[in-house]
Write a structure and sequence with these properties.
DNA-binding transcription factor activity; MerR-type_HTH_dom; single chain; mainly alpha; transcription regulation; 0% strand; MerR_fam; DNA-bd_dom_put_sf
């Protein structure tokens, strides 16, 4: 994923990855990802978090289940 900005809203990232906002929030919960929020409480994805979401989505697109992706995550591959 080519990162151009220093922060992404959930809408921007979901459109870029072609997933729903719900999917991103689901990934946050499943992978225990902390997403900082702005003063209004809106999610602000850093480039690092955007890359992690991109990798998770790519693995899902390749047919891996969340359980298998978590194994990669626990090995610090994400």
């Amino acid at each position: 994923m080519e990162v151009m900005k220093d922060r992404y809203s959930i809408t921007e990232l979901s459109e870029y990855l072609n997933v729903t906002d719900h999917t991103l929030r689901y990934y946050e919960r499943e992978f225990n990802l902390y997403v900082p929020k702005d003063k209004r409480g809106r999610r602000c994805y850093t480039p690092e978090l955007a890359n992690i979401m991109y990798k998770i989505k790519a693995m899902r697109d390749d047919g891996l289940e969340i359980k298998a992706i978590k194994k990669f995550s626990s090995r610090k591959i994400l």
